[in-house]
């Protein structure tokens, strides 16, 4: 049976023990705030997953039963976004509720980046922690570690990091899997690091012997066209260089299993507390090296296999909640950090093995730009007996989760914090007549392109005269300074109607500039 459109659902809200208060648009508290009855929250943020990559959004190449199951039991949003076309700024905005373009240096973080979020910055984790929630993050971080300007002390205390912005527990991939160092960080330390074998990390080759992709091309099991020619680990060239730390190095194939086992353990350990858990698997990010059990399970090659691995990850987390009898007390949000890219330097035939599968669905663009394919992503909210099953066309964004969750649980927000986050919790809960946000700024990686959606209209501004134009690979193509699209009639952004709507375009240009200029941090 197909889920009903939200507009056709009867305005019936389940009335269950702890959920006795109707949600309003401002901050709201539960009638019963005791720890045993407050809702838990899990956000699962995928990496480089496109709108059309999963079955419930029209994906045809890979079966995604776990993700589709979430959608069948909850709300599937058709106009949901991340705020940026690449991972670091998108994750920055998710955590802080602030557009990343307001913060200098918030593009894709290099291997030795200091923390992009200063210690003590209010975040989605800190506001929930202050409200009595136990908070954790498991998976990809890619927001820098350590103090400015020095950056990470890989052999010492890695702070500031997640714990300094409100997380109680962290097991993170500190950068991303195509960068060095290939280690995991638990709280403030590199996991399993042997002090007698120190880890050195840099963006320039070290003076000591090392194996890089330029000098040892025969050691590569996946070819690269030039961007990942640093130190080889596990047969893969990475961005940057490292030496030492042998006991701490991970095996790519085992990472998804770690995210699952750690999530299971964390949920078991915190089942009696109100909790917030952010799980950030990286499966689709290049290089796509999945667990052996998923290798070759799809016809789409490594990228398709990575989607299958991601779906398994989601399913295992849901199963854990069911086993702990927490599924009806836990809000699950499934989303993605940005849209898809097929060939991101590594050559794994992702572009050749698509068949009729379209990672973007009906949309144009992909990772690295600001077209709809870059920032409109799968977005599912599930909580049985609380969130109705159906489909919503309300506009929401991952940047809104911090303000929305704070309002939902009655958490105080420091003055001036979460400034770009909008409380869209009524829309996330599928409330009758609830409204999402009315406008949204989308950015690329800080290269000078913006998208500004207002109602049914989308203004695209390109300051660099060229923009990454598709999801096929990182290749810039010429683009006009401004373009205007009517998304309701042209969701694929195929027809620039700026000339026919000059007055509207000028108004939107001015509004976008005001937002960009307002109180830059």
From TrEMBL:
CDD domains: ARS_like. It comes from the Bacteria. Keywords: Hydrolase. InterPro entries: Alkaline_phosphatase_core_sf, GAG_Ulvan_Degrading_Sulfatases, Sulfatase_CS, Sulfatase_N. It holds the Pfam family Sulfatase. Its EC number is 3.1.6.8. It is an enzyme of class 3 (hydrolase). Residues 39-410 form the Sulfatase N-terminal domain. The keyword Hydrolase applies. One of its GO terms (molecular function) is cerebroside-sulfatase activity. Belongs to the sulfatase family. This is Arylsulfatase A.
